[in-house]
Design a protein that fits this description.
CATH superfamily of the largest domain in chain B: Porin
Strand content of chain B: over 45%
Radius of gyration of chain A: 19 Å
Helix content of chain A: over 70%
Number of strands of chain A: 0
Number of strands of chain B: 19
Strand content of chain A: under 5%
Number of domains of chain B: 2
CATH architecture of the largest domain in chain B: Beta Barrel
Helix content of chain B: 10-25%
Number of helices of chain A: 3
Largest sheet of chain B: 19 strands, mixed, barrel
Number of helices of chain B: 5
Oligomer: heterodimer
Radius of gyration of chain B: 26 Å
Number of domains of chain A: 1
Shape of chain A: elongated
Structural class of chain B: mainly beta
């Protein structure tokens, strides 16, 4: 869960930054740069979110019971 | 801000609701704490906070849940589905809960296959679902402490506009504030997106009233719209009544009652008043006509040790029921049906839910042989 907390500490300043940008009239070039940034961030989140959740869960299980990749993904009981 | 010994960034200790008032702490007497104006202000705010404490108010819950007991608990509309459904949940750990679910569905609007992963403990919840068309639904809830919660939800799909919702909740001792932003975009010359702010305040230990403001600037070309809704809720222990007056001209009244220890009943009426342009024949020009639509739903929920029955009667003719039954600790069945004799339509859904385990310990727990701490339960069946 520490990983999560660190992640949140990055997200909130980013949001505050985007709020402070509200009054700025950005040039076309920087607008395009922002939209590129957002679309690549979106792609990263789209394909990275689920692996991230699985990794968080996997790392939180106790050491003696760390499931392997097959048992993580298969619906069959592994006990 | 009368007390000078409070850090401005420390919002929690500024609040008069925490039971710890900053004035009580011994501070060095300086200009800001000894001048008559700030002394007067602090004594006034201290009196107000003491009076508030003496009222014995409780947190009213958030605005979203104002009629939760009726529309989310008793009514089955949220849980209804058509066709066949199978869910296989695999649990790997209990603290924090780590679960993976595979869902299959046939003949319904649900995706044919979806994969979910959840990890949750008291402080945080992270969830992700991806379906066979690669559309992702993500959710992240994080409680900073027992009063403050932040939530992020995401919906990303290929070839469709994405959705991102940021939510922040503050649940104090006698009121709740909720702030929401849907698809916020600050990069343009003006704000783009949807903002919702709501507050619900307890007036007495049973009655609470609230207000919700929606600022809608989703359309970048059109003008932004703002709307205010009002709500009230009366919670008398075994019955709860709530009323909402929404800005678009809708009135929602709901009533919930615990009839017996295992029986709850709910009633909800929606009256929608709208103004629609209608072509009148004499004048050949559109005139505005006021239309009133109303809908009432009556529902009941029986809760037994291994089954939940829900039944629901709607004034438009829909009769629905839902049965959830746990046959074994690890196998559950869901059956729901809905029929409308006036419109001649019907819906039917059947689902199975399997719980499997990722390791032996969890499997023993699921079969009721050991408890949460791994201690054997007396009289449990042997493997």
């Amino acid at each position: 869960m520490n990983l999560l907390k660190i992640g949140l500490y990055y997200i909130i300043p980013l949001l505050l930054l985007s709020i402070t940008m509200a009054g700025l009239n950005l040039s076309e070039e920087s607008k395009e740069r922002f939209s590129n940034l957002f679309s690549s961030a979106q792609t990263i989140v789209h394909y990275g979110w689920l692996p991230f959740v699985i990794y968080l869960g996997w790392s939180s299980t106790s050491n003696s019971n760390k499931p392997n990749l097959v048992s993580l993904l298969s619906p069959l009981p592994s006990a | 801000m009368a007390a000078s010994n409070v850090n401005i960034g420390d919002m929690k200790s500024l609040s008069p609701l925490q039971g710890v008032y900053p004035i009580a702490t011994a501070a060095e007497p300086g200009f800001w704490s000894t001048n008559p104006v700030s002394q007067f202000l602090s004594s006034v705010s201290q009196t107000i906070s003491q009076h508030r404490q003496s009222l014995d108010l409780v947190n009213p819950g958030i605005m979203e849940n104002i009629n939760k007991e009726v529309s989310k608990d008793v009514f089955l509309s949220l849980y209804q589905f058509t066709g066949l459904k199978a869910d296989i949940n695999k649990t790997f750990a209990m603290n924090p809960v780590f679960q993976i679910a595979h869902s299959f569905a046939v003949g319904s609007k649900l995706p044919a296959y979806s994969f979910t992963s959840i990890i949750a403990n008291d402080q945080a919840l992270v969830q992700g679902t991806i379906d066979n068309e690669f559309s992702l639904t993500g959710r992240l809830n994080y409680s900073w402490d027992k009063h403050i919660t932040s939530k992020i939800s995401l919906q990303l799909a290929q070839g469709q506009p994405s959705m991102c919702q940021l939510e922040h909740e503050y649940q104090a001792n006698d009121f709740s504030i909720q702030l929401k932003a849907l698809n916020p975009d600050f990069t343009g010359p003006k704000y783009n997106g949807l903002l919702i702010g709501s507050i619900l305040q307890s007036i007495t230990s049973k009655l609470s009233i609230g207000m919700e403001t929606v600022y809608n600037a989703m359309d970048p070309n059109g003008p932004a719209q703002a709307a205010i809704s009002l709500a009230g809720r009366y919670n008398s222990g075994d019955w709860i009544a709530s009323a909402q007056l929404q800005a678009q001209g809708a009135f929602i009244g709901s009533f919930w009652r615990k009839v017996a220890p295992n029986l709850e009943a709910g009633l909800e009426t929606t009256i929608q008043i709208a103004q629609q342009p209608v072509m009148s024949e004499q004048m050949m020009m559109p005139t505005i006509q006021t239309t009133v639509e109303a809908n009432t739903v009556l529902g009941a929920k029986y809760e037994f040790r291994q089954a939940i029955y829900r039944g629901q009667l709607e004034s438009n003719g829909d009769v629905s029921f839902m049965l959830e039954h746990r046959i074994l600790p690890t196998i559950g069945l869901v059956f729901n049906g809905s029929i409308n004799q006036f419109k001649n339509t019907s819906k039917l859904g059947c689902g199975i839910q399997l719980e499997t385990a990722g390791n032996e310990e969890i499997m023993m727990m699921q079969n009721g042989m050991v408890d949460q701490n791994g201690n054997p339960i007396a009289g449990a069946p042997q493997m």
